[in-house]
Amino acid sequence: MNEHPAPKRKASDYKSEVKPVWCPGCGDYHVLLSLTRMLAASGTPPEQVAVISGIGCSSRIPAYTNCYGFHGVHGRSLALAAGLKVARPDLTVLVMSGDGDGFSIGGNHFLHACRRNIDITYVVMDNQVYGMTKGQPSPTTDPEWDSALAPGGTGIRPFQPLVIALASGANFVARAFSGQPNETARIIHEAVMHPGFSFVQVMSPCVTFRPEQAAWKDAVHPAPVEATDDPARAARRIMTDDGFNIGVLYRGDRPVFDPHSGAEPVPLSALERSFAL
């Protein structure tokens, strides 16, 4: 008997009935659109996808999808996702985060998630500000950005997520712009399909607290060179980047973390005996 073809899916199949409550003009609307378009194009059933998040405007996304989801505590989304993927390697695990959640309180998890190279995809919506808590500078904010909460700017060098991801061992590194949802969907899809830990920085404007970011749509441009599998070349490219190059920067070939490789399963009873007094 011939098997029936998999049903063609639509982006709406991956959206929940919960309506987003982001500010008008927020770039995260388009990231959600890109995510659901990517999932529809992949044809992955919603019940085989898990969307994990922490705290922040961007971290609301699991509630807006029709997939399995977990809205975790601040900065711990990657730890949750790592445990889930190790326990359920059959699932497609995506982590949706923001620059505050991912690079400040979650910065240590970011480093070690890159290093471990578990097969998950980390999408960070970077608007260079804490939008949910009314406009504080974030780790990626320019040092001279003047605001009521940081008069004259912080004077602190901004965090460079692409550089950190590459140096820490991420197997796939890319940048996208939320205002280009089809291109963003394509990049996220490539990240999901690439084995190992994939990191996608999505420039997602916060026009409420950073209205000047509306100009990003005219500043972004395709990266002038092709992606590389050479970390040294990728590092040189990122360090000379103007911050608006869009596309895949690096595709690595490191072995994917496998917790079961070469190890015999240990019965629970044996573990219990080892802790007996």
Mean pLDDT: 92
CATH architecture: 3-Layer(aba) Sandwich
Q: What is the count of helical runs?
A: 9
Q: Could you state the CATH homologous superfamily?
A: Thiamin diphosphate (ThDP)-binding fold, Pyr/PP domains
CATH C-level label? Alpha Beta
Elements, N to C (H/E): HEEHEHHEHEHEHEHEH
Kindly estimate the percentage of residues that lie in beta strands according to DSSP.
15-25%
Overall geometric form: globular
CATH fold description: Rossmann fold
Low-confidence stretches: none
Instruction: Tell me the span between the first and last alpha carbons.
Output: 59 Å
| Rg, alpha carbons | 19 Å
Helix content: 25-40%
Tally of domains: 1
Side by side, the strands of the main sheet go: 2-1-3-4-6-5-8-7
- Which structural class should the secondary elements be placed in? alpha/beta
Determine the oligomeric state from the structure: single chain
Q: Report the count of strand segments.
A: 8
The largest pleated sheet is described as: 8 strands, mixed
Describe the structure.
With 277 residues, the protein is an alpha/beta fold. 30% of the residues lie in helices and 16% in strands. The longest helix is centred in the N-terminal third of the chain and has 15 residues. The protein is globular, with a radius of gyration of 19 Å. The mean pLDDT is 92.
Please describe the topology of this protein.
Elements: H1 28-42, E1 49-53, E2 68-71, H2 77-87, E3 92-98, H3 99-105, H4 107-116, E4 121-126, H5 161-168, E5 172-177, H6 181-193, E6 198-203, H7 216-219, E7 221-222, H8 231-239, E8 245-251, H9 268-274
Helix pairs in contact: 1-6, 3-4, 4-5, 5-8
